[in-house]
Design brief:
This protein is an alpha/beta fold. The strands form 2 sheets. It has a 7-stranded mixed sheet, sandwiched between helices. Strands 6-7-8-9 form a 4-stranded antiparallel sheet. The protein has 2 domains: 13-153 and 216-293, Vaccinia Virus protein VP39 (Rossmann fold); 156-215, N-terminal domain of TfIIb (Single Sheet), CATH 2.20.25. A hairpin with a 5-residue loop joins β8 (189-199) and β9. It is 26% helix and 26% strand.
């Protein structure tokens, strides 16, 4: 799978004029197992989850597998990718907006930020994304973040090559190859070099190459920013990310058992499906500080009146 939202307007062709090729480059069926897992995580919230905000929804391939059980509002900054998603998910609400700054004036039972968060490459931007999620998450709800890489998991994987693709009934075919590397391990981003081979139904082909800058933040940064926004933070990792010495096993990668309300820290919920390689969960408490403060003032006022 590939991330599905551009990092800056007009920056990458993949999310502009090449967007109609997205369902072939990263086929929707590849998201089914992970979406099933995420649906189980939603079910672990303290409140029933029905309405979900998907920030950085891209071509809607995760939404495709969730829309039968959830009411989804899909936000992406690329109009071309939203057009692709509308064809696939006409039942869903689509909104053009930036995951860092969009404000819809309402809350949802849960918020999903899938791997489009990879295109946030500085800590200030990541803080904005998490604050946006918190602003749209109702008390008792949760926010799920699914970055492809953390700094630790990228060091374990060692970058390297990958690829994929598919075809459609019209006879079009698309494939891509990628090479990942880290120009400077001291910063918060890595580089992906992509080559796309796009073959039209008439047999004509084009080859497109472009480099994408992707975020790879430390787990400690994720957990600190989640807590700073007001969430109870959790960090979990799938089998791939756990395979090396930097797997999420240390205290830095965990919250306490009471915060998780479930399995031991670092292992994640077990709802079935395929667990993402990196998974961060922010749980919002049922009681907000404002309500708690109001209740205490009311108690003190009653006490002073002899009530």
């Amino acid at each position: 799978m590939m991330a599905g939202m551009t990092g800056a307007p007009g920056e990458y062709r993949l999310y502009r004029d090449l967007a109609p090729w997205w369902p072939l480059i990263s086929p929707p069926q590849e998201y089914a197992a992970e979406a099933a897992y995420l649906a189980g995580v939603f079910a672990s919230a303290a409140v029933p989850v029905r309405e979900v905000l998907d920030l950085g929804s891209g071509g809607g391939h995760v939404a495709m597998h969730l829309k039968d059980r959830l009411a989804l509002t899909l936000v992406d900054r690329s109009p071309e990718m939203l057009s692709v998603s509308r064809e696939l998910n006409p039942e869903c609400v689509h909104v053009q907006g930036d995951m860092r700054t969009v404000r819809l004036g309402r809350v949802f039972d849960a918020v999903l930020v899938h791997d489009a968060v990879d295109y946030v490459t500085c800590e200030a931007g990541l803080r904005q994304v998490i604050e946006t999620a918190f602003a749209h998450c109702r008390p008792g709800g949760l926010a799920i973040f699914v970055p492809d890489y953390t700094a630790e998991s990228f060091r374990t994987d060692g970058g390297g090559h990958g690829g994929g693709g598919g075809g459609d009934a019209a006879g079009r075919q698309a494939s891509f190859s990628q090479w990942m590397w880290d120009p400077d391990p001291a910063d918060d981003w890595i580089q992906a070099e992509y080559e796309f081979v796009l073959r039209a139904a008439d047999g004509s082909a084009q080859v497109v190459r472009e480099a994408h800058r992707l975020g790879a933040f430390r787990r400690a940064t994720w957990l600190s920013l989640l807590a700073g926004a007001g969430f109870s933070p959790e960090a979990h990792s799938g089998p791939e990310a756990q395979s090396g010495p930097e797997a999420h096993s240390g205290p830095e990668a965990q919250s306490g058992p009471e915060e998780q309300g479930g399995p031991e820290a670092g292992t994640g919920p077990d709802p079935g499906g395929q667990m993402p390689r990196n998974l961060f969960i922010g749980r919002r408490g049922l009681r907000t500080p404002g309500i708690a403060a109001f209740s205490e003032c009311f108690r003190l006022a009653r006490h002073s009146l002899g009530g």
